[in-house]
Specification:
alpha/beta; single chain; five-stranded parallel sheet; 18 helices; FAD/NAD(P)-binding domain; binds iron/sulfur cluster; binds flavin-adenine dinucleotide; Fumarate Reductase Iron-sulfur Protein, Chain B, domain 2
Length: 494
């Protein structure tokens, strides 16, 4: 522990951001670097706890508490305080293949469970992680390290999101020949085509890591959907093992009156086409513009927030986010104690930008859409909404009940459905003949990752349902370990 009294002497500080009214003019990342002195001071706030809840990734009440990849947080906080950045990076890479991704996009369950957070604002763990990773890239400490010896084993990884990339990186480091199949035109999964550029830069951050993986010997085969362009059967014959990392990509629909109208899209159609247009330098046929439009986003979660930020950068006329749940409290409620993930009200980047543009948080809480209204040409022109309250039905289950007299008609030229995901797409899972769990995910135990077919492993959102980048990395690493054990009879992978 660098400074035993640091937590009493220093206040929490986080990195500055470009002001909302300025950053909406472009697609650049908006977090600014924190000066080195400030980072060292923040590292000094860590108490090096006997039981560092920050790094003990657990699931409590269905949510992550502590770091899911078990980052050695107190160790690198201390190293940063001492200015030993290269050693801090080495510690960070022991548990996390891609700290530059989590340092940017992770909601930081580590900070939610930080012991200092019981009485004070928690240590700024995420910002320190980001800074260690970026210092590593800037200083040239992150370079390709191909394995010194190769085995004769071939592994196919299906899907190139964070789970697939982590699995590929680990299996390649163990000397296996790894081919990653991806149906999109670029690898990265939701790192490339889900999370918008202003949160995670595609060329400078995602591609930078993909280049290293390729130079280490991982082969990427894009524009190739397994089960369609290559049969699942052939893949099983050709490779010694298969790791399935296909994500949870089936979006939840809203089958209310008017759903067939033009101008109503799933959030991912909007976000994917937008990022592709930025990368290609021109809008494709599937590009959906929000420019000059009244936009209504159904769903107040993170995907909805990304739609808000993207619509504002397009130059929308207005934006409303419809959220069926109540507004969370300003501070933890009695039923949500430390070290649980704090379910508290926060303005995320998209809401801050909407407030800067239009004067207010765009979220309408305890509200649901009842009908989409169209014009004579079949284009959506409004969303009918009503406020709800949560009551119990005859079986004691919570159900939304409309509040009479609260009906509204919200103008809408573009409606984006961001209500979560219902699990992985089924055709490939069925073609492989894999068992599923009750939620249509691939059936495999966490930490085992073995499916009902020997030699086929599953990791990430296709196994656990839509989750977080950090869980996907955790699972990809774990599946690689078990795959290596299957191939070699033993494993040294963590
Ligand atoms: C809009 C959005 C924003 C998000 N923002 C955040 C965030 O800020 N922070 C965070 O922690 N999490 C965020 N998440 C969640 C996070 O991105 C996911 O939990 C994570 O990417 C899951 O990783 P994965 O590797 O399991 O799957 P994915 O990233 O979904 O990757 C799966 C890949 O498999 C490919 N694939 C599917 N089927 C086939 C096939 N048959 N053949 C070949 N390829 C196939 C898909 O094309 C895709 O590229 C966000 C999710 C969304 C939708
Ligand atoms: S819980 Fe917080 S104070 Fe304790 S070791 Fe982790 S980061 Fe440091």
């Amino acid at each position: 522990m660098g400074k035993p009294t640091g937590f009493m002497e220093y206040l929490r500080e986080v990195a500055q951001e470009v002001a909302p009214a300025d950053r909406i003019r472009n697609w650049d990342e908006f977090h600014l670097h924190m000066p080195e002195d400030s980072l060292r001071t923040q590292g000094a706030r860590c108490m090096d706890c006997g039981t560092p809840f920050c790094h003990t990734g657990m699931t409590i009440s269905g949510m992550a508490s502590g770091c899911p990849v078990n980052n050695l947080i107190p160790e690198w906080n201390d190293l940063v305080y001492r200015g030993l950045w290269e050693e801090a990076l080495e510690r960070l890479h022991k548990t996390n293949n891609f700290p530059e991704f989590t340092g940017r996009v992770c909601p930081a369950p580590c900070e939610g469970s930080c012991v200092l957070g019981i009485t004070n604002p928690p240590v700024t763990i995420k910002n320190i992680e980001y800074s260690i990773a970026e210092k590593g890239w800037e200083s040239g400490w992150i370079t390709p390290t191909p394995p010194q010896q190769r085995t004769d084993k071939k592994v196919a990884v299906i899907g190139s999101g964070p789970a697939g990339l982590a699995a590929a990186a680990q299996l390649n480091s163990a000397g296996h020949w790894v081919t990653v199949y991806e149906r999109a035109d670029r690898p990265g999964g939701l790192l490339m085509y889900g999370i918008p550029n202003m949160k995670l830069d595609k060329q400078q951050v995602v591609q930078r890591r993909l280049d290293v993986l390729e130079a280490e010997g991982v082969t990427f085969v894009c524009n190739t959907e397994v089960g369609k362009d290559i049969s699942a059967e052939n893949l099983l014959k050709e490779f010694d093992s298969v790791v399935l990392c296909t994500g949870s990509t089936k979006p939840r629909d809203l089958p209310i009156e008017g759903r067939e109208l033009k101008g109503i899209h799933f959030a991912m159609e909007f976000l994917t086409a937008n990022t592709r247009s930025l990368l290609d330098g021109y809008p494709g046929n599937d590009y959906i513009s929000a420019a000059g439009k009244d936009v209504v986003i159904i769903g107040g979660g993170d995907t909805g927030t990304d739609c808000v930020g993207t619509s504002i950068r397009h130059g929308c006329n207005s934006v409303t986010q419809v959220e069926i749940m109540p507004q969370p409290p300003e501070t933890r409620s009695a039923g949500n104690p430390w070290p649980e993930w704090p379910k508290v009200y926060k303005m995320d980047y998209g809401q801050e930008e909407a407030a800067a543009m239009f004067g207010d948080d765009p979220r309408a809480y305890l509200t649901t859409a009842t009908k989409f209204e169209g014009d004579e040409q079949g284009n959506v022109k409004a969303v009918h909404t009503v406020q709800i309250q949560w009551g119990k039905d005859e079986n004691g289950r919570f159900v939304p009940q409309n509040v009479p007299g609260t009906e509204k008609v919200v103008p809408a030229h573009l409606v984006l459905l961001a209500m979560g995901f219902l699990g992985p797409e089924q055709p490939l899972i069925d073609a492989l003949g894999l068992e599923k769990d009750g939620r249509s995910n691939v059936k495999a135990e966490h930490e085992q990752y073995t499916t009902s077919i020997p030699g086929v492993f599953a990791a990430g959102d296709c196994r656990r349902g839509q989750s977080l980048v950090v869980w996907a990395i955790n699972e990809g690493r774990g599946a690689a370990r078990e795959c290596d054990r299957y191939l070699m009879g033993t494993t040294e992978l963590p």
